[in-house]
Amino acid sequence: MSNQHMLLAFNLLPVGSNISTWWNFGSMLLSCMMLQIMTGFFLAIHYTANINLAFSSIMHITRDVPYGWIMQNMHAIGASMFFICIYTHIARGLYYGSYLNKEVWLSGTILLVILMATAFFGYVLPWGQMSFWAATVITNLLTAIPYLGTTLTTWLWGGFSINDPTLTRFFAMHFILPFIMMSLSSIHIILLHNEGSSNPLGTNSDTDKIPFHPYHSYKDTFMLTSMITLLFIILSLAPNAFNDPENFSKANPLITPQHIKPEWYFLFAYGILRSVPNKLGGTMALVLSVVILIIPPLTHTSYMRSMIFRPMTQSSFWTLIAVFITITWTATKPVEPPFSIISQMASILYFSFFIINPLLGWTENKITTC
């Protein structure tokens, strides 16, 4: 197919006429991924994966390399914007029933897991205090796995502690995984085009469609421009807004920070981990907090796809959003009352959403058929 035919097919791509701006976050995620890959490639040229030189190489990039501070901060801030977009994208999918496109939803869940792994590996690379100790806490969770835990941890570390081989492995994984994400994103988009997008009303979009361009391409352009504008505002006025002060000190295994915590986009899972007293139970809860997203397509019981006409389920959804924010907040606090109790209650409510929703669907079905 020639370039002209491809451009024509893109322009005339039929999409639902009532799709709102909430559907633009998919294209924003693609833009975020391209931004991260481009800035990451620049940083990789100057980065040294060695525990004695990693921190110094980051300082060299930000102080000595021309425009290096822009690239480094864009990469760090871009990661946060990536997660803002993907969490919004997932919330929209839950609210409007997009998860009923099962293959699209499953591929998206896999992409989320790979993205979180990529971000975790990247967070360790600066070899600051919080990077080192967050990696120590999270990788030690593997030891909770019966029989294989110690072996897996030793393999991941490349030894019996987090050291030079660990950093080399994390750098290699952080560099390779984005290209795997690109491949999976292509599959995700192909599946989406095969099955078609959902819409706010949850009706069949095939009955009324319009060309992608200009009706939706203009929305994508506006949202992308807004995101880039916000990125440069943060970059100019508060470049270290998402950085932990502890990470501006080189990693020291002999000094433990008072409060060990990962980046904000991991805090909901970290809060759920801390809310379970048992190490194995906490590890399972941590994994389940993300993997549980494969459940909604299997447990959808309502006759209606979208929550827009389901007030009971809407209340449940907004409770989930409040719970997510609460867990994120408590994860920044010490593990002591009342924060530990609030975190435990919020964690129970988080998992309860995926159990209550099918029951609410049955209830709403009975009410609407009466």
From TrEMBL:
Membrane protein topology class: Multi-pass membrane protein
Q: Name one Pfam family in it.
A: Cytochrom_B_C
Q: Which domain of life is it from?
A: Eukaryota
Keyword Mitochondrion on entry = yes
Q: Does the keyword Glycoprotein apply?
A: no
Major site of localization recorded for this protein = mitochondrion
Matches recorded under PROSITE patterns: CYTB_CTER, CYTB_NTER
Q: What molecular function does GO assign, one term?
A: metal ion binding
**Cellular component terms per the entry's GO annotation:** mitochondrial inner membrane; respiratory chain complex III
Cofactor binding, per record: Binds 2 heme groups non-covalently.
Q: Which residues bind a ubiquinone?
A: H193
Similarity field: Belongs to the cytochrome b family.
Family matches, as PANTHER family: CYTOCHROME B
The name this protein goes by in its record: Cytochrome b
